[in-house]
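Deliverable D5.2: sample structural annotation.
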Amino acid sequence: MGRYFPCLLGRPQNILTMPEVGEGLPAQRPGFLHGDSRPWIPGTFQLNEAQGVERPMPWGKDCDLLLAPAPAPGLETESLQEVLRELPRNFPVALYERDIPLWGNLILAAEGQDQGRTFTDSAHGLRAYRSAFRHRGRGGAEALLVLPAQFHLDLLNLSWRVEWRRRGGQALLNRRHLATALDYQRSMQEVLRSRHSATLQTVEKAAVVMPHFDDDILQCGAAMLQALDAGTDLRVIWLTDGRKGVSTVSEQESARIRHLEAQRAMDILGVRDYHFLDAPETALHKRGPWTSQLHDLLQDFQPNRVFTVWWADNHVDHFEANRVLQAAWPQGLEATLAASGLWQPLPITTGVAIDANLRARKDEALLAYASQIAEVDYLRVEHGLSCWYARDSQADGLEAFWELPAAEYWNAFRRSGCPKRLFV
């Protein structure tokens, strides 16, 4: 299932794959499968109709592009695979997000949406979240995966061939995206097949190990507040130094600003036990003094639960944070890992419900990271993502976590093939 040989890729500055920003779908007569796609990607059709493209129709032989939601494992995947096998290998197919997140390669504007953080439904929240990839987090956007039919089949079948097929120089078929899309597809299967915790139970000690200042509040702020309210001992550890976070100042000044913001956020939460390991941001790797420092902090603290980012989050430091944490993991530490995603959502909807009280307190702490909100409207990004995560619940927002025993998490990491991806 996973890789047998290393996959060498150039090291990105931050985001592993940045989707192309487009102006519409490459089609004149798009056809939809598995339900009407218009409620989920209305902006896409507004763009196409403005260019004279026909309204989408139910899938048939006269269509020149197939539209379908990213399929959940089971009958929907099998049905899509049957259709894909009947199509010419290079027939264009566009998947969009409905119930399952995508490793998208195309972002399209969804204009006409409000600029606030109150969403009418989970689809609206998802479009606000996806706007992180354009307009500095404002407005709305829709993510799609546009590939030839054969490439989609390879991804759905978890086949290594997708990394090596001839690509013809098309921007949407770059190798980094295809390699990481395959990794994501394998990783998502590991999440969906695992028997993870449905809710976070109270524990005596919890550690938060995050790559960047702001990941703590963005990814698990409500869970941290819930733990503190329950009397849990909480230790927060940041891996990188923040030197790349503020684009308008020097790296030294950026790091200074972000350290101060982190201290302010912890003061707001009431956390006193926090640690800076100061690995170089965007150059994090497991061979550094921070790995042994992390080992010592975990060994000394002996947490029952460790919050972190899952390896398939779409950021190079988030990916490398998993290598560092695995290398630093103390022998005999029997803790669970509660992994979350920000730049790439988890395909689950279980975790911590965000009520009005937790929302107000989480937002207050997040506002401490003013330099980052000036770069991207992370409040709107987080509100949109938490709204989409809450689509199967009665809550207004949700922090989703994939929690399972650490040994099972690392085994899933190995099976995904991601540890053999090397950024050079």
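Annotation notes: The first strand starts at residue 7 and ends at 9. The chain is about 40% helix and 20% strand.
The annotation will be released with the project's public dataset once the embargo ends.
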